[in-house]
Amino acid sequence: MTTNSASARYEGLGKDGKGHIWTKSGVLDAQPYGFGTRFEGEPGTNPEELIAAAHAACFTMALSFALAGAGHSDGQLDTEARVTLEKDGDSFTVTRSDLKLTARVPGIDEETFASLASGAKAGCPISKLLNCEISLDYELKD
Questions:
Q1: Could you give the angle at which helices 110-123 and 47-69 cross, rounded to 10 degrees?
Q2: CATH of 47-141, one of 3.40.50.300, 3.40.640.10, 3.40.50.920, 3.30.300.20
């Protein structure tokens, strides 16, 4: 079992409040977030950006291990995740995460790659965590 941690502080309330996020690893160290970073393009991060980063990283690692398990020893995987936040009554809901993958895996055929990528999409821990639609669009390059 692996446990990771992060913490957040929000000073002030609502739109006027300002938050900061810390991770145990130090990757985020008082990283600002708030209404402005979430909805108005101000510098800083927001929860959906962090979810997108986690999903892209998790899916890409899962696919890397699936490819290695299938006997492939070389390749490059580049994934972008786009997480969508939509108004849902009086609150908001993450409605989807769209994965866009560009891959180079010498010697793999399209059918095998599609199967492994689909399995990684369904099986990565962050995909399992998300309660939303997840799409995968990929390009397999020579």
A1: 130
A2: 3.30.300.20
For residue 77, pLDDT over 90 is answered with yes
Query: For 52-66, how does the pLDDT look when each residue is reduced to its tens digit (9 = 90+)?
Result: 999 999 999 999 999
Distance, CA of 16 to CA of 84 (rounded, Å) = 24
Distance CA 11, CA 124 (A): 34
Q: Is 85 helix (H, G, I), strand (E, B) or coil?
A: strand
- The DSSP secondary-structure symbol of 113 reads H
pTM: predicted TM-score of the whole model, two decimal places? 0.95
The whole-angstrom separation of Cα 23 and Cα 8 is 9
